[in-house]
Amino acid sequence: MKYLACSILFVALPGCTDKGSDPGTESETADTSSTTAPDSATTGDDSTTTTTTSATEPTSTGEPDETTGTASGSTTAPLDEACAFVIGKEFVSKKQYPCGPQPDDVPVETCPDRVRFQSADEFAYQSGDYGIGGAYTCEAGAIVAEAEGESFHGTVDAVKAELVWNDELFEVE
């Protein structure tokens, strides 16, 4: 009966062979990541033959995952609470700085510095009329960033909604 089932499926499944279940066989090592062809499995005994077929479709949406800040389907480990807290937020410094160069006879206008975390790995920093953006990493609330050769560092306290950025205190705007 086994050969009859294989003969019947031979027309539907080219290359039908008795490969067994040894690791490393062609059926176990074939790359199917870019195909949507149905997978097929056949079981049988002397009295009946059963065939099951299923197709696999990709499920990744490419949208950011709230726990990792990366596209769904990614294998990145989830972010800790403090690191996840900063994503999408803008922080303003408690201390005021000159907004930019002022004419000689005009009092200096002051503004807070700003740090914005656009995603789980991109940030923008603005001080007065100077702005810079780049990449950052965050682990256990400790942020290390770099942009155009400049290094930045910070720590996040999600409970207090505060960021210490290059030794200056910032709060969520």
General description of the model:
By secondary structure, the chain is mainly beta. The chain has two domains: 2-54, no CATH class; 81-172. The protein is built from three helices and ten strands, in the order ααββαββββββββ. The protein has helices at residues 2-12, 26-29, 81-86, and strands at 39-44, 49-54, 90-98, 110-117, 122-127, 130-139, 142-147, 150-157, 162-165, 168-172. The strands form two sheets. The protein has an eight-stranded antiparallel barrel with strand order 3-4-5-6-7-8-9-10. A hairpin with a 2-residue loop joins β9 (162-165) and β10. The longest helix is centred in the N-terminal third of the chain and has 11 residues, at 2-12. The protein starts with a helix and ends with a strand. The model is unreliable at 1-42, 49-63 and 70-75 (pLDDT under 50).
Q: What are the low-pLDDT stretches, counting only 5+ consecutive residues below 50?
A: 1-42, 49-63, 70-75
Contiguous helical run count: 3
- Give the count of structural domains: 2
Cα-based radius of gyration, to the nearest Å: 29 Å
For the biggest β-sheet, the strand order reads 3-4-5-6-7-8-9-10
Fraction of helical residues: 10-25%
N-to-C SSE string, H for helix and E for strand: HHEEHEEEEEEEE
Q: What integer is the average pLDDT?
A: 72
Morphology: elongated
Largest sheet: 8 strands, antiparallel, barrel
| Gap from first CA to last CA | 74 Å
**Quaternary structure type:** single chain
Give a count of the beta strands, DSSP E runs of length 2 or more. 10
